[in-house]
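Key result, reporting period 2: structure in, sequence out.
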């Protein structure tokens, strides 16, 4: 596809400088995760500039949510592609990602230093204590749309509950094999939905096999291992966001030993309080493994699939959305993802080391789930409580 060609012939031709400025601005102020990113992109592209029709923007949200990886990042890439084709996607996506990436690497250098100041250790321990509550809040927020997608039929609702339970157990128990469970749930639902067509006397429904080429790097660590972990995060994480947490935790903490449990909790917290997608947590993992080169490599590998999905698949988004096999796959994988996000809260909570952290976790859960307040305020408040605890002489 030509760098200036768009999916829609009547699309306004927006300059690359404008794309860089506006998408970079959203990358700087996009605190609060995907809801904030979507609201800012809608305000810019639909309400203020009128570059994209409201219905087309909603279709873009639906299409990018069908893809693995960070959905709000893919929406930022998609809207830039909508306006200036491949070049627009590259410029807009990079400018959206870069501010948060620079900030999270700077914070990683501070929080993962060999001897960070006392207040830094306290802030990290406090914010990390709240991460399990954030995972639960993220899972609960996805439930209504997923249940609606499953439909009202009793068998479909029972399968939805089963997929959710399996995803939760897999996140808590299986670690790096979680992605296989998510794919299996999607394939089971696809097969169940295809069965009536075959039984009705028509030709058996054939679905293309979904292959998973898993080539584990020969090296036990180093940059090849960093690239492998990042690839799983960027290309195989359905649902984006928190579903990547158990995948990364199993590799970064248990397998490669790049980080301790406490440092991993800090990494997740940093991914929440910085602008940009939660997936940038993988940059902290890369930094822990191999410094700045590791952080940059992890980010590049994790985000590359999002660019490829949009640039290569943009003209086919409508056809992908209409494919019943794709719809069936995500109807099964979706609740498994929700279960996995909720299930990730268990190992995250078990990683806490001090009694006062569990008190912070309880307060964060009340703030997020009962009071329904924002994630950023919860993590900043938890970090402040951690500073108080550290200054009071409590262990961090």
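The corresponding designed sequence is given below.
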């Amino acid at each position: 596809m030509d760098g200036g060609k768009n999916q829609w012939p009547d699309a306004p031709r927006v300059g690359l400088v404008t794309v860089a400025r506006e998408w970079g601005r959203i990358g700087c102020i996009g605190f609060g995760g995907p809801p904030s990113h979507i609201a800012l992109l809608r305000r810019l592209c639909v309400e203020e500039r009128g570059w994209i029709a409201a219905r087309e923007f909603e279709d873009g949200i639906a299409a990018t949510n069908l893809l693995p990886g960070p959905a709000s990042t893919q929406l930022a890439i998609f809207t830039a592609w909508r306006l200036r084709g491949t070049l627009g996607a590259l410029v807009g996506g990079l400018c959206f990602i870069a501010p948060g990436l620079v900030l999270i690497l700077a914070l990683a250098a501070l929080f993962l230093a060999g001897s960070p100041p006392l207040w830094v250790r306290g802030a990290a321990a406090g914010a990390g204590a709240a991460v399990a509550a954030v995972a639960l809040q993220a899972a609960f927020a996805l439930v209504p749309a997923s249940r609606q997608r499953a439909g009202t039929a009793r068998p479909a609702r029972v399968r939805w509950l089963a997929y959710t339970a399996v995803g939760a157990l897999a996140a808590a128990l299986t670690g790096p094999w979680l992605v296989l469970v998510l794919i299996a749930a999607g394939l089971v639902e696809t097969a169940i939905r295809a069965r009536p067509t075959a039984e009705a006397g028509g030709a058996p429904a054939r679905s293309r096999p979904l292959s998973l080429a898993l080539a584990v790097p020969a090296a036990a660590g180093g940059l090849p291992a960093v690239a492998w972990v990042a690839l799983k995060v960027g290309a195989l994480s359905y649902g984006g966001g928190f579903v990547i947490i158990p995948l990364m935790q199993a590799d970064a903490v248990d397998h490669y030993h790049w980080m301790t449990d406490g440092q991993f909790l800090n990494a997740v917290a940093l991914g929440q309080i910085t602008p940009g997608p939660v997936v940038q947590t993988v940059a902290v993992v890369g930094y822990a493994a191999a410094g700045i080169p590791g952080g940059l490599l992890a980010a590049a590998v994790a985000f590359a699939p999002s660019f490829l999905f949009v640039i290569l698949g943009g003209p086919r988004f409508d056809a992908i959305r209409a494919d019943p096999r794709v719809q069936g796959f995500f109807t099964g994988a979706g609740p498994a993802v929700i279960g996995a996000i909720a299930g990730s809260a268990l190992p995250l909570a078990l990683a806490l080391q001090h009694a006062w952290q569990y008190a912070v976790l309880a307060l964060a859960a009340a703030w997020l789930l009962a009071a329904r307040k924002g994630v950023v305020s919860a993590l900043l408040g938890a970090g402040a409580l951690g500073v108080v605890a550290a200054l009071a002489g409590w262990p961090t």
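The mean pLDDT is 82. The longest helix spans residues 71-111. This case is discussed further under Risks and Mitigation.
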